[in-house]
Task: structure prediction
Amino acid sequence: MLAAETTIDRLARWAKGRDNVRSLIVTSTRAIPGAHVDAYSDYDVVAVVEDVRAMLDDTRWQADFGEVLISYWDPVEADPSTGAEWVGNITNYTSGLKIDFSLWSPQHYADVTAGPDPYPEFDAGYRVVVDKDGLTTGLPGPTFSSYISARPDEATYRRLIIDFLIGVPYVAKSLLRGQLLPAKWVLDFDMRFNYLLPLLEWRVECDNDWSLKTGNLGTRLEAHVSTDTWSGLVGTFTDADPMANWEALFEMIALFDRVAREVADLLGYAYPEDLVLRVTEHAQRMRDGDFAGGPLG
Result:
């Protein structure tokens, strides 16, 4: 694995040696002072290029950074009103290096930086490595405040609870039917990552004045929640055994219930206790086989 500065230097030499590349900006973790990085931290690179499609027509330039293991390209996007083009790429190298390239036309750069609000990717942290044409002159410095969870209003808070709870009878029904895949999708993805994780992030932000990043997909969440909360979250993961998934379902409900109460107290919101209890008891009746709601639909 190449050392960080060696990789930055190689990126700089690469950009300076290619006429098509006009600016190169490193963003994300590698551009944030004091951020935790390790050998697995990737490089997020915005390259402003004169001709985006030319870079796709001949991608041999990717080998300038080593032997390519696998590379993925998004479709090229274009703004019909301005002619701006841009495309994203993920490249993994056999050395372990990973570079996420964003190729932008100069017009796209102008478009995303022209508004009154800072471009989130730059506001989260950036480092100008090469700028041949002075494109970045006047670019405001990052505030490092983008991608931090915003304080929800009470309607958003309540909607998250309802969205989480709507999955409970679906998981229960799927387990009763022996339908493992839909049960696991709703429990392990939808309920956990779409609703429980944002709630846990809100709880962390309540203690940190809405100024702390917990990382993509909760990368740094463990360091900022209580031991009991983390243990409760770990307890929601299980294998394919139906009974274990019932237990995981109720573990997740219990954790969500506790944290949602804490967030309600800290934000001064009303907690819909009756609704949570009603949905929980409904799932318990389904598990125990005495569901009186008629045949499953």
